[in-house]
Design brief:
The chain has five helices and 16 strands. The chain is α+β, with helices and mostly antiparallel strands. Strands 1-2-3-4-5-6-7-8-9-10-11-12-13-14-15-16 form a 16-stranded antiparallel beta barrel.
């Protein structure tokens, strides 16, 4: 047994001797390989740094533009104009008192008309000052004052269903309080998922109903009346109350459905506000497709203010009612399309149907990421009752089926607070009269925000 044991020991040492002799060589060889790898890594890192510098230098203007675009977008989401501020006040609890304002200047002219319109131009302006302040655990108070002056070219035109400038709400150089309301949410069903909301006070109903992402602001998007709101929607006064309820959970990230109903005084005189009210109910659906936002709204309304039958003036105690849809859908990161459709009572309305459609293109394609191009078409159908009554009512025969309207604008951002927008409009069959020449309207809008 002893001999076998020593034989085994000898065999083990015989096998280890080559390994012991080669071990230092293996270690030193591995160190050399490690040094070579470190050198290669250093070379790669240096080349990567040089490449990054080249890319940054080559695309410095583009990176600067993207940075400016992000900054501007953040500003727009904060408080750009009173409409954006209003949306913010209606959509979330603000953290602190905020104030802002905007000034819009318009110059519009009439061109190449041969039948009495003349080549004339006129100007107007409007200014808004707004503030938002948190009140209570879940609410905000919103105030907006406005001032404006100038009739623009509207008095120089023949009768039209859509005006050329939806901003002509004032023509007196005095400051007026035009909105003052309180908005709040209720912890129903719980504090995190608050679904019920209330808005009460002096409210512009167009700020709550018939919204649209790209066709809803005369100071920053389309200017003509027909593209700012649905022409076949006769809004009432601005004192009232609105209740909204979100049917979907906040945990549902792919769908949002909100129902809203509002009741407002009918004639804006603040007398007997509940006597003949304007009532509207709307259902809003937000649903993205492949990351592209889409908003779909449908509503019905009734305006109980006194209306007169177009063919029988003895019937002067009628109401007007109708329904409509408003939708906008992104089809790419740069393009958003929109459409509206509405109907109203032909017995009391000059036009009983209205349709508009168009789109907005953001200027990424020509490295002006904040600039916007807008193009839209609209048609207002002349009611059969107005065709019969137009000569007696307005002194001309409405013998066309539609008044057609086109508008295009380019919004150029000079800096983060100043935009300039050349604008053109074209009206076919103004007021439903095909005997009148089409009207070409040119203009420019400047808006400053702070």
């Amino acid at each position: 047994m002893g001999v076998n044991f020593f034989c085994r020991i000898k065999a083990v040492f015989s096998a280890l001797i080559p390994l012991i002799i080669c071990f230092p060589l293996l270690v030193f060889g591995a160190e050399d390989e490690l040094k070579k790898l470190e050198q290669k890594l250093e070379t790669i890192e240096k080349r990567t740094e040089d490449l990054e510098k080249e890319i940054r230098q080559e695309h410095k203007p583009l990176l600067k533009e993207i940075s400016e675009h992000v900054t501007t977008m953040e500003k727009e989401l904060d408080t750009v104009d009173y409409r954006t501020a209003r949306i913010k006040a209606l959509g979330e609890k603000v953290e602190a008192f905020s104030i802002g304002g905007d000034l819009s200047l318009f110059l519009q002219g009439i061109g190449n008309n041969s039948r009495g319109y003349g080549e004339k131009a006129d100007a107007s302006y409007s200014g808004d000052l707004f503030l938002i302040t948190p009140v209570g655990p879940y609410g905000n108070v919103y105030f907006r004052g406005a001032v404006g002056e100038g009739e623009g070219i509207a008095p120089l035109l023949p009768p039209t269903f859509s005006g050329p400038n939806a901003d002509l709400g004032f023509n007196e150089a005095k400051f007026e309080l035009v909105e003052a309301w309180y908005w709040t949410e209720f912890a129903i069903p719980d504090k995190r998922d608050k679904r019920l909301e209330l808005t009460i006070g002096k409210i512009d109903p167009a700020g709550l109903f018939d919204a649209n992402a790209v066709a809803n602001s005369e100071t920053s998007q389309f200017i003509a009346d027909t593209f700012v709101n649905n022409l076949a929607l006769e809004f009432g006064g601005n004192a009232g109350v609105s209740i909204g309820y979100r049917f979907t959970s906040i945990y549902d990230k792919g769908l949002k459905v909100v129902g809203r109903i509002g009741m407002f005084e009918g004639d804006s005189d603040f007398k007997d506000v509940l006597d003949r009210p304007f009532i509207i109910a709307e259902l809003d659906t937000w649903m993205p497709f492949y990351g592209l936002n889409g908003n779909y709204r449908i509503y019905g309304w009734v305006n109980n203010n006194k209306h007169t039958d177009l063919l029988d003036s003895s019937k002067d105690n009628l109401s007007n009612q109708g329904f409509g849809i408003s939708l906008d859908q992104q089809v790419s990161n740069d393009i958003t399309l929109f459409a509206r459709y509405g109907m109203q009572d032909e017995d009391v309305s000059k036009f009983d149907k209205a349709f508009t459609a168009g789109g907005q293109l953001i200027g990424n394609g020509w490295r002006r990421a904040n600039d916007v191009i807008g193009i839209a078409y609209g048609a207002s159908h002349v009611s059969s009752k107005y065709k019969e009554a137009s000569l007696g009512l307005d002194g001309y025969a409405a013998n066309a089926d539609y008044e057609q309207y086109l508008e295009a604008y380019y919004k150029y951002w000079a800096n983060n607070n100043l935009s300039i927008s050349p604008d053109i409009q074209y009206v076919i069959n103004p007021g439903g009269d095909n005997a009148k020449d089409s009207i070409f309207i040119y203009g420019v809008r400047m808006q400053a925000t702070f």
